[in-house]
């Protein structure tokens, strides 16, 4: 499924901008691919993402207790991000698990959380189309390739997911916001279990890295 037109994208995975409309009907369409890749390819593509603008970073402590900043990227697992525009996700092949966190819950309320599988098995509740709202009605979202069922880990290199995204009114990287550690704290407050659950998929706070 991966072609030369697919470039590693900062949130994780690969994408190719296939259409940008002009005139009265503004929208963009994107091919988006999640798929496991060999270690040497992951290293190469992580470096490519780090050379681009607005790469997503994580911070780690080395053996001496010093903070180290590293590019956070995976070919088959994305970090949480919020789009300004509504996005329709259209399934082509494979399966992907989407985790959605309500970006702006009502005051005093915990954010709603949804987990949805985009795939072809409707009998198991999988969907071929997924609309994710953006802006002040939006959801933080991330996608990942689900691991094969136990006993089928030899199929890992054959898994992946290819979708199209139709962005209305249009796609622009400036409209792409990444979830930071401080956002998690604001969303979940004293709910440390939820913070720990989602922390691996959030970007470093401003001042400790860029996003």
Automatic annotation (TrEMBL):
InterPro entries: Cupin_DUF985, RmlC-like_jellyroll, RmlC_Cupin_sf, YML079W-like
Listed name of the protein: DUF985 domain-containing protein
Record domain DUF985: where: 78-178
Entry coiled-coil feature ranges: none
Gene3D superfamilies on file: Jelly Rolls
